[in-house]
Specification:
The complex is a heterodimer of chains A (154) and B (286). Chain A is mainly alpha-helical. Chain A contains 4 helices and 2 strands; from the N terminus they run ααααββ. Classes of the chains: A mainly alpha (154), B alpha+beta (286).
């Protein structure tokens, strides 16, 4: 068989193979759960190195910012803590909880305070004096005074 | 006066004194120190902090506590002009300080050579914190050791009308003290101050050091800070601010710190450069 005949046979074989494949695909049953039309989701390739990092401190009550979820078991204690007027009353509420839950509750309470009054130092108010609303009372003491406590490198 | 003394934070000496307060309240505060440590230590792979570090690259839900302390770390970074950066975790670990210091003492550790260290990126560039979630850039990790102690001393101190909460030298004092005149606090140079409301913290290279290095990382280089400050005590409105300023001053060095500290809110400070005998430390602490 000459080169021309080989080319003819090869071309005919290719056409036959493609035709058979097309017929098989066309008659293949569609799975029951498959959508009629694949959903189209517009995606954008993201180059993480080119992304600007968004602000670390979100604006309180900004769209899309949801408060931290408080475990349901702490909701009642949270309500009681909000109503407590004195340190003793707050201690009494906290005393009903294990140590880790007390801390979660205190942290959650601070978050709620920040949401309602965004006047904390740092990100929310860069010009706020360090220490927030604390009125410090610090004065020099005579060197001979015995310290009640020492601060040291630990 | 009942004084509760205990060891926490990988070997740091802590104490809580609260004249007139029920003993149970003070004991509860001590329990919270351990609960806090368990949740936020960098020395346990199962702590919430280390699980957060392991999830770097993903936006993950965080507890209210971790949420708050991460925000405190961002505030410390801003207040300190970037000198206090919680993202120094990996640089610190490269020095070999990747476990409690008592464990580190038992093996050879290496200082980070300046030539091989890399500057630590600004914290807001690698840490994003929302309400109930946070995201850390892949390849970075957070250490909340210093920031956490200051934050916790403030929260526990606020529970009492009259108390001092001292967590490894980071302390919050409020009230009339044991005898009505306030709390007298000894600083690193042996001087004293009296506090009715405020915080004090001390930082420096006098402790947690080893041949060729120490635990204070300069974020600008990623290596151990080249500083002459053996110890610096700072008094400020609260312990968190004091802790931030003390660490920033220690990184800066004594000369620059003397002008930087007052500009950032320090109300009193004492600096010991290259360690004279006046250094007050655990050995002289009560």
């Amino acid at each position: 068989m000459g080169p021309g005949a080989l080319k003819t046979v090869s071309a005919a074989g290719t056409v036959i193979a493609c035709g058979v494949s097309a017929a098989l695909v066309a008659t293949d049953p569609k799975p029951d759960g498959a959508p009629l039309t694949p959903p189209v989701r517009r995606t954008v390739a993201r180059n993480s190195e080119a992304l600007a990092v968004p602000p670390s401190c979100p604006a309180p009550n900004s769209p899309g910012s949801a408060p931290t979820q408080l475990p349901p078991a702490l909701q009642q204690a949270y309500d009681q803590l909000r109503q407590a007027q004195t340190p003793q009353a707050r201690q009494a509420v906290l005393a009903t909880l294990p140590a880790d839950q007390r801390q979660q509750l205190v942290a959650y309470t601070r978050q709620q305070q920040r949401r309602s009054a965004p006047d904390q130092r740092g990100c929310s108010a860069p010009n706020q004096p360090a220490g927030g609303d604390i009125a410090p009372s610090i004065r020099d003491a005579p060197a001979a005074t015995a310290p009640d406590v020492n601060s040291y490198v630990s | 006066m009942t004084r509760h003394s205990f060891i926490a934070f990988g070997g740091a000496r802590c104490e809580i004194s609260a004249p007139g307060a029920p003993d149970a309240d003070v004991s509860a505060a001590v329990a919270e120190v351990y609960a806090f440590e368990a949740r936020l230590t960098r020395f346990s792979a199962s702590s919430e902090l280390m699980r957060f570090n392991a999830a770097a690259g993903e936006r993950v839900a965080v507890s209210p506590l971790l949420n708050e302390v991460l925000l405190a770390a961002l505030e410390a970074h801003e207040l300190s002009d970037g000198l206090v950066n919680a993202a120094t975790h990996n640089a610190l670990a490269r020095t070999g300080y990747d476990r409690t210091f008592s464990a580190v003492r038992t093996r050879q550790i290496m200082a980070v050579e300046a030539e091989t260290a890399n500057p630590v990126p600004a914290l807001p560039e690698v840490l994003e914190v929302g309400e109930g979630w946070a995201r850390l850039t892949r390849g970075h990790a957070i250490d909340l050791g210093g920031v956490g102690k200051g934050w916790l001393a403030d929260r526990l101190g606020e529970r009492f009308d009259n108390a001092v909460v001292n967590l490894g030298g980071d302390l919050r004092a409020r009230g009339d003290g044991p005898e009505g005149a306030g709390w007298t606090v000894g600083l690193c140079d042996g001087s004293r101050i009296t506090i009715r409301e405020g915080g004090v913290a001390t930082s420096g290279t006098a402790r947690r050091r080893w041949p060729g290095g120490h635990h204070l990382i300069d974020p600008r280089t990623g290596a151990c800070a080249e500083t002459d400050v053996s110890a610096v005590s700072v008094a400020a409105a609260d312990a968190a601010v004091a802790e931030t300023l003390a660490k920033g001053a220690a990184v800066l060095g004594s000369s620059a710190a003397a002008t930087w500290l007052p500009s950032r809110g320090a109300l009193r400070y004492a600096i010991v450069a290259d360690g004279p005998a006046a250094l007050a430390d655990e050995a002289t602490a009560q």
